[in-house]
């Protein structure tokens, strides 16, 4: 007989709903506001999120922090939060294809900066 607790006892992780998110994420926000949300909802241990009280088992982040971080980093929402793309402005779901990443990288390289950027070297296995 195993001494490990049964992890498949029928209790499922809660599914985040729009009401569970920080209300600031439901309207268009700038980078500063998104960063503020990331910091306010940071939880270094398992327990409850200090910003919204969301239960954080196994040290997963609360949904508000994950959405704000995805918006900040301009990447798709995690799969468990993909159903929120319709209510969060600027959010998207799905995976980025290599062509999407290359297009975004080329757009960023074309933007003017303070200093001339060195030429980007192809990634390992990239035949561009």
How would you characterize the overall build of this protein?
This protein is elongated. It has 128 residues and is mainly alpha-helical. The model has no long low-confidence stretch (mean pLDDT 79). The longest helix is centred in the last third of the chain and has 13 residues, at 98-110. It has helices spanning 31-40, 63-72, 98-110, and strands at residues 47-48, 55-56. It has three helices and two strands, in the order αββαα. A two-stranded antiparallel sheet has the order 1-2.
Helix content: 25-40%
What gap, in angstroms, lies between the N and C termini? Answer: 57 Å
Provide the gyration radius in Å.
19 Å
Number of helices: 3
DSSP, total strands: 2
Approximate strand percentage: under 5%
User: What is the succession of H and E elements?
Assistant: HEEHH
Q: Biggest sheet, strands in spatial order? A: 1-2
The assigned structural class equals mainly alpha
Mean pLDDT: 79
Backbone shape = elongated
Low-confidence stretches: none
Could you describe the largest sheet, including whether it forms a barrel? 2 strands, antiparallel
Task: Summarize the SSE layout with pairings.
Elements: H1 31-40, E1 47-48, E2 55-56, H2 63-72, H3 98-110
Antiparallel strand pairs: 1-2
In short:
The protein has helices at residues 31-40, 63-72, 98-110; strands at residues 47-48, 55-56. The protein has 128 residues and is mainly α.
Label this structure with key terms.
single chain, 128 residues, mainly alpha
């Amino acid at each position: 007989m195993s001494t490990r607790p049964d992890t498949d006892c029928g209790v499922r992780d809660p599914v985040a709903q729009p009401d569970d998110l920080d209300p600031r994420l439901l309207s268009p926000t700038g980078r500063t506001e998104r960063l503020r949300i990331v910091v306010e909802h940071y939880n270094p241990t398992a327990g409850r999120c200090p910003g919204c009280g969301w239960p954080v088992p196994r040290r997963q982040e609360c949904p508000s922090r994950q959405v704000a971080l995805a918006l900040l980093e301009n990447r798709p929402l995690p799969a468990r939060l993909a159903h929120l793309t319709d209510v969060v402005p600027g959010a998207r779901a799905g995976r980025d294809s290599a062509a999407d990443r290359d297009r975004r990288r080329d757009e960023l390289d074309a933007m003017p900066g303070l200093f001339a950027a060195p030429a980007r070297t192809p990634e390992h296995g990239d035949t561009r």
